[in-house]
Amino acid sequence: MFNILNEVIIILINKKRISSLRYFESATTNAPISIRVDDVGRFSHQLKAFGFQDTDKSGTTILPCGINRYAKKNSEPFFTINKDLPKESYTQTVYWTRYEWAGRGQVNPVTEFSYIHKQRYHRDYFDPYSVCFTLITDGVKKCILSDEIPYTDKNQDKLLNTVNMLLAAFGECTVDFAEQENKVKHATVNWDILPQGEYPWNSIKETLSTLSKGHTKTQVQLMLRNCEAIYERNPDFVAYGRSGFRGYAVFGFTSKNIYILESVFPNNATYVLQDNWEKISQLSKAEILSQNLHKARIVHSESWKKNFDALMEEQDG
């Protein structure tokens, strides 16, 4: 449906998905495009799954949860497979239990990580689109509004993915070609910081396990192993990711001016960031994972503990 208000074009899309940008044909190059869902109170369950909480106020900005395949591309790095290039080597990490012979008919269970070296088709990796949404309310009705996305050739896949993310989550969305005149003051909420105090590792472990539900045993155990090693270094604070950052944790070492980011997601790494926390907490997922911003990147491999200890000892020195 097309509405023209004072020469401003607003398009309401009611479909399961779109496969082309024909709805954007009237947009001019570099025109700011916002995508929203109006009267989103109709979709209370979907809104919560999307990442907003009942207590969120007008102006709260989040990165949506990865609730569908489009939302996952928006919140996590993704890849395409290129079979024309030579195969590449990679390491698969498996958390498993084997049994060792102990003599006299006895066996002992040994649970550990194994690292299996394999070959696969070449993968090209891409940063997440990292489109955030802001909750806006007039006291009666609520809507969620995307970041403004300039209409350019470079952003066509991002626009298509953002529309399909909303259609998959809510069944409808509105495309607005007008620059937002009365912009709402917003506050980006990506992290929940634990109150100051000392917490036993078991308490941290329980929270991390809860936030990691839905992932494989190997992914969860790998994150817990790494986080325990980081926590043993006595960070000043711990922050858990919310919404699109769910499954991530940050350990802050303010005296060293470093912040260590760990996650449950596969094919990931431990990121060491160096800046003030207020700035880091406002960064998008793509910005955090950018090679230009992190001080170090420790790959999840059999050498992880050795490399992590070496980095921390360098900081102590």
Description of the molecule:
The protein has eight helices and 19 strands. The strands form four sheets. Strands 1, 2, 3, 4, 9, 10, 11, 12 and 13 form a nine-stranded mixed sheet that branches. It has a six-stranded antiparallel sheet with strand order 14-15-16-17-18-19, covered by helices on one side. The chain has a two-stranded antiparallel sheet with strand order 5-8. It is globular. The N and C termini lie far apart (64 Å).
Please render the helix and strand layout as text.
Blueprint (H helix, E strand, L loop, with lengths): L1 E4 L2 E6 L18 E6 L6 H7 L9 E3 L6 H7 L2 E5 L5 E16 L2 E15 L1 E5 L6 E5 L4 E5 L2 E2 L5 H15 L2 E4 L10 E2 L2 E3 L7 H11 L5 H15 L5 E5 L6 E6 L4 E6 L5 E5 L3 H4 L4 H5 L4 E6 L4 H13 L1
Parallel strand pairs: 4-13
Antiparallel strand pairs: 1-2, 2-12, 3-10, 3-11, 3-12, 4-9, 5-8, 6-7, 9-10, 14-15, 15-16, 16-17, 17-18, 18-19
Structural class: alpha+beta
> How does the major sheet shape up?
9 strands, mixed
Number of strands: 19
Terminal CA distance reads 64 Å
Helix content: 10-25%
Number of helices: 8
Shape: globular
Compressed to H and E, one letter per element, the order equals: EEEHEHEEEEEEEHEEEHHEEEEHHEH
- Spans of at least 5 consecutive residues with low confidence: 1-7
Relative strand content: 25-35%
Mean pLDDT: 88
As a whole number of angstroms, the C-alpha radius of gyration is: 22 Å
Quick structural overview:
The chain has 317 residues and is α+β, with helices and mostly antiparallel strands.
Q: What attributes characterize this protein structure?
A:
317 residues, alpha+beta, nine-stranded mixed β-sheet, six-stranded antiparallel β-sheet, globular, disordered N terminus
